[in-house]
Amino acid sequence: MIKRRQIKRRPHTLKKGLLIPLFLLLIILVAGWWTWSYLSNTSNPQFNYLKISRNSEPIKVLNGESIILSPRDRIKILDTSTNLFLDRGITLFTSTLDVNILLYKEVILADLLPNKDIFKRYVFTLDVNLGNQKIGYIDMVIEPGLSDWLNKANRAIGSKRKTLVLEDALQLYPDNMDIKKRLLNEYRGQKKWQEAALILEETARQNPGIDVYEELIEVYKALGQEDLIIATQKRLIELDPENSELRFQLATLLEEAGKSRDAIVEYEALLKVTSQQDALPLYLILGYLYNTTKQYEKAIPYYLKALELNKEDVNLYHNISYLYEKIGQQKKADEYLEKAVERNSGDTRSLLELADRLIEQESLTKADKYLDKALDSDPRSITALLLKVKIAEKRKDQGDIKGLYKRILAIDPHMMTLVYNLGVMEYNDGNFSDALPYMDRYTRYYPNKISGHEFLFEIYKKQKMDDFAYKEAQMLSKLKPGDISHYSYIFEYLNSRRKYTEIITAMEKGLNVNPRSITLRKYLILAYLNNGEDDLAIDEINEILKVNPKDISLLLQLARLYEKQVRYSESAGIYKKILAVFPEHKEAREAYPAILMKYTGQLERGGEYQEALDICKQVMDISPGHKEAEDTYLRLKIKVLSNSTGK
Known about the structure:
The chain is of the alpha+beta class. Helix content is 67%, strand content 8%. The strands form two sheets. The chain has a four-stranded antiparallel β-sheet, with no helix packed on it. Strands 3-8-7-5 form a four-stranded mixed β-sheet, with no helix packed on it. Strand 1 and strand 2 form a beta hairpin. The relative contact order is 0.02.
């Protein structure tokens, strides 16, 4: 049996042929993966910058940076730089702006803005994304440029609109001087001084300068802010301390603000740098300011220096005279006043002032001479004539005084004090008919002046002009209701004419004001009695008796009135009071029993026998042997017994 030969193969020969291609393939795959990973780098993508063309000028904006653009800029996105191969998968996104169009063409930004409003400020965040992953961003700030705002302001119609535009522009460009200047002009035109001040104050803080401070002063003047004006003027001087004009302006401001002592300091500082021939205005000002601050001794030297430069200025002599008088150097004061008169003999003011001083010094003859000169210059000078009156009064020359008064009144007839004085003088001299027209004139001019009416009242009485005196008494009772002396004349006048009703009216008015006046009540009682009004008279008598219960004359009058009214009991009571005070009063002693007997008869007629008997017994007690009382007593006794038996 023949066996088939088996051939043995080498297994490693096949493996070796396959391993090499597999190994190469593996190397290629690894290299490809590594290359793809390197080129794609999706595990750590990075955004580097965005390259933009602005008005044909390329600009790089790095990741996270901002770029400020104008709405009028022409923009195109040129390139997006990342670490990705060919920027594969990169997209750009912003929520409010279509930026992708910028990848393809150049666009004016204003066309992309909402409502194309170029005068708003926009901030857009442009995100750079890889798929859904944000790998970077840039901020695009779009705002109008300065020229845009200025052009808009130029086109604005009306100052208010222009102002609003410029205010908005200043918010974006707070340091821009062009906007500030234009806005400042608008505020001035509209008199918005407070707003103008704010701009200038900020400008002064940032860039202090003479021009700015001067503008501020003008604005503060418009606002009436004196303290700020002065403070700003001081800042001006700090910038230019050698500028005399600026210091003079400060001194003037202080003076006008009433800060005289501060002004003095500035004026004296100016005086140190001012030549002698130019110092006159400063001497005058300093003299005036020291005078107004009552520093009289310091004022004098400045006025004296001013006088050296201007010896013909009469006012300086007056001022120096006044100041010497203030510090008590009267001799010096008069010396300079006389010098003023010497330099201007027609200076009525100086003549009068000097004459007045001489009168006080009792140099009456010399004063009279100066007053005559003054009247030569001005014959109608009332002041000169009144000073002459003072001289006449010191000399006690009544005739001269009267003549001067009349001379003055011929110039000014409304000087009522002189009219009154003339009336009094004529009255005191016993010239009542001459005094009358003056006092009448005075009271017509001053109808409520009491003194005039009092003199007129006395004159009318002296002249026996009763009707006129009565009218004046009525007037005085109104003007001086508390003075009852005028009511006395009113009563006498009306009583003599039996005008009792008018007396009653006048006295009742008087009592309303003077309720405690016994005199007025007595006048009223007499008027009531004469007018037949006994009850009212009784009431007034009782009012007086409350105050003076022992007034015998009134008690007697009251008793008689009660008797007249058949009020015997009350009449008897009054007589009893009189006898209690004055037991020996003759009329009361005689009248008392008689009234009691009348009272007894009154009771008897009324059937009151017991009461009548008791009263009759009183008469017998006080008047023993009174025949009528004894007879009446027996008769009443029988009646009382009869009544008792009958019962």
